[in-house]
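User: For my dataset I need records formatted as: sequence, then structure tokens, nothing else. Please produce one.
Assistant:
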Amino acid sequence: MQAAVSKMTKLGLLGIFMTLALPLWAQSDPADETGSDASESEPVQLRDRSRILYIDVPVPLIPGQEPEFPEAQFTSPAAQSAEFQDQAQVIADYARAISDIERQGGAWDQMLVEELTALGALQQQQGQHLQATETLTRALHVNRINSGLHAIDQVPVVEQLVESYLALGDWANVDLYQNYLYYVQHRAYGGNDPRLIPVLNTLGLWNIEAFNLGFGEPLGIRLSTAQLLFASAARMVGTYFGSEDERLVPYLRNIAKSAYLVSQYPDYMREVDGPEYRASQQDFGRQLGFDRLRNPRGFGAGREALLEVVEYFQVQPGAEYELAEAVANLADWNLIFERYRRAEELYGEAWNILAAQENSEELIERLFGQVIPIPTFAHLPTNLLLGASDSQDKLGLHHDYADVRMDVGQDGAPRRVEVITEENEANDRQLSRLRREVRDTVFRPLIVDGEIRESSGHVFRYRYWF
């Protein structure tokens, strides 16, 4: 335990323990943490390019359609490009305005905050994220001197800082400022104010991403914290806006996302049971309004959340497709956990909802016309080195593509998996690992006339990073 804490201190990571011990924030200034880099003195290590680090969610290859992958998450910060050259004059104008304010009002004039924040935004647009962090950090200092150490009006500046640190892959500062955003707003609004709802969700999503990066120790605390945050956000929506408020659905699906990860990584969850972490989780749970400790749960938490999504759409007029999709997601959940009979019943229910609509063929094709990896709401890049030292290396990776043909059984398991991309000396190790990962994926099987069918000849394109 002492070694883990020492390592986190070295990294400058206040992280989740700052979330669980909020009074510490009142004695510290996150802006003072910038500029330190404990890794500068460490020797540079060359990455083993034959190993895959991440695999994106695959895209089906459909004849006549070009596969589209989501925007890459693993690229280096964008360099200044020609299209931004016309902003150079605007940046120069801001620099002159800042100088004028300093001459008239001094280095801590409140008017500097707006100009520095705007300048930082322009630097972000040009991909100058290092310069942006320096500019925005100064804006934060000026704001705090004029408005107070934890003034709520510093939130937009801190949010911009998070954006640049994300682009730079500086996870320690992202963690620091994400938790600080929660602290400032919790301190300003209190624990029961509905304005805190999106704040809870944002911090929960960061903890999910940090877990997927392998950032923070122990990793199980990340998922436990995320589930608590999502549950608190969903409960507050229900309390203040009612169970028919549309904002409830994404928060419930985020609960299910955290539950899926809890179920997939049981070894990490055992860490949460240690007495040194249990007490802090209990304190955090009470801060979020839970009377007793909520242990992170897998199947049960996901099933309950997805069932609430179904119940939400059952009372929404004209939401037949969304209801069928919600029922299909619940069926997927049961299939993942090998509750095959219940899964088949639910797939049949989803099919019947769509079959009763005038445009039933179109809707059925849209929902069930292609096997897809499940759960559909938890599509994250797969980190193949989770917990390893290089699993956090997310920027500047190389990528390649591979096409994979497979059959999908009634249980959603891929069968007769075949990599149809040409293998060579450079990629044979990568494709071998990819093949193993594909075999461990669960797909929504083909649904025909409301029944699960085995199907063959599905081709997916995978993008992988190394």
